[in-house]
Amino acid sequence: MTAIGEALQQAGGADTPHADTPHADTPHADTPHADAERVMRIGEVAALTGTTPRTIRYYEEIGLLSGGDTRVLGKHRCYSQAEVDRVHEIVRLKELLGLSLEQLSQLLEAETARAEIRRELHATDDPGRQRELLLQSEGHIANQLTLVRGRLAELAKLEADLSERARRVRLRLEELGA
Amino acid sequence: MTAIGEALQQAGGADTPHADTPHADTPHADTPHADAERVMRIGEVAALTGTTPRTIRYYEEIGLLSGGDTRVLGKHRCYSQAEVDRVHEIVRLKELLGLSLEQLSQLLEAETARAEIRRELHATDDPGRQRELLLQSEGHIANQLTLVRGRLAELAKLEADLSERARRVRLRLEELGA
DNA sequence: ATTGTTCCTTACGTGAACGTCAGCTTAGCA
DNA sequence: TGCTAAGCTGACGTTCACGTAAGGAACAAT
Known about the structure:
Strand content of chain A: under 5%
Helix content of chain A: 55-70%
Radius of gyration of chain A: 22 Å
Shape of chain A: flat
Number of strands of chain A: 0
Number of helices of chain A: 7
Oligomer: homodimer
Order of helices and strands of chain A: HHHHHHH
Structural class of chain A: mainly alpha
Distance between the termini of chain A: 38 Å
């Protein structure tokens, strides 16, 4: 496939990038309430997010992922659905906005804080503290929105330019046909 | 400035990235019709496009820029406004779509062909040939549009997600305030 | 207990996209 | 004609974002 082909396909997504674990995830739920907070290992997370274990470890290395605070060195990393979500978010923002991982780690300060905030929101009864946390959240999201909307505007302008070009070419073709 | 700051500013553009040529472009038009097809050298092009001479040479090296077909080796490269436009286009697509330069060179086949097409369109009187050229142009633009619109859709979805999140946080804040 | 698969850490390798330095030539000007 | 700023051609260095390989430990199943 050509490079442009890849670029065009890039919008589709949802492919099967590599087969790491051959037999799929255990279909029969052996343990009760298994789906809610299943503990996953790195290979599964990688497969679910369309990345590789190496990538996940790298993201941990540079501080994008926590990588199991309480994990004993030398033992397996274990992840929950929350980490999967985060990796998905990382990939999405990275591809869509073309940000470097350093920029992302700053932007994702929002997400990092969100987990913390959710925990603390449920833990505290102090309305003042809750207010503070929510305001922080709002600020982070606003940051992301600013970035995304800026990109949207630029892309819209590009689209307009291209449409205009296409229109002109069509006009000339009609002239020619007439 | 923080990385996120840069990312947020990235939408603004139009900064002065570096001062290469101290005294600006000769303000007095010595030669007549100077602005139409001024011949520029690499430093000026770099300054105008917010890049560096090295970058321009690199783009030439990998085939993204022609770099003066008729240029004698060892002599200075010279550029016209067309090259400046092309570099601008490259930078724009690269940043906005996050494409690799190889992908870009495929996508920009359109632009490459356009110059050719414009020349040939004026050179030939054969309507059949003209039709063919215009159809080619149309195809290339359509390719670009597909790519851009795909991105636009993805970004719009992201924006919607973020807005939804922001809405929820605001709701909780109102609850709290009430 | 053995075995096969997945994972661990460490460390070196890689491709893209330039940056940077050296040594020399060209172009504009005084 | 001489000077200086800008450009030229190698060629090596660098950062990012991982890939890959080696040697060993951990888990699941038998």
